[in-house]
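Note to self: keep these together.
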Amino acid sequence: LGPFSFSGYDKKQMWTVQNSGHSVMVLLGDEATIAGGGLASQYRAKQLHLHWSKELDAGSEHSLDGDRFAMEMHIVHEKEQGTSRNEEEAQDSKDKIAVLAFLVEAGSKNEGFQPLVEALSDVPRPQMTTTMKKSISLSDLLPEEEKLRRYFRYLGSLTTPGCEEQVVWTVFEETIQLQKEQILAFSEKLYYDSDSGQTLKMTDNVRPLQRRGQRQVLRSQAPGRLLPLPLPALLAPTLTCLMAGLLR
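Structure:
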């Protein structure tokens, strides 16, 4: 589980932002790809979305050392045909989707995220879309690339019905920091309601923590070694299923 190769992550664009009815989604087109990082193929970024809560320790879908975080961001990628190392891997549906998951905690103001935060006011209701008023890149949202060498890996599922077992999950140790006001804006600006009588604020769009079961959780920089079960730092993964219809 070595370092990732990020391509197109530094390209700045005024992304399209959408209220999907259960999250806010940024449509990424087909500009960015990832490879390496122990992945068997190249994957192309399709969208990113977030999960959150008004409580700063209840908005993530994974926990680390037993702790949960204010938010979690998922960058969703689809496997590229013809890029697998061998034919058997190419036909494997267990890693059809690769999700990069980033835990978000309260801290200093994050200027890279500000164009997305400002766009929330323009998409309060489901299916509304807008365009960011400032160009940003995916890299602007993430920690420095050198800090993305430490991560957890497991095979899991999508998190809303039908929860297909087809996701290779990468959960990074390095967190993203957002100012508390930036985090709370997601709960305050977005609504589940489809009409203009906005009453049900979009918050706590988080799947409850699930048992790890028999899944093996791997950790980068420890090639070939499983995390021992008693280790306190064991990632307790939510077998997070992305939003229903997110790839439709």
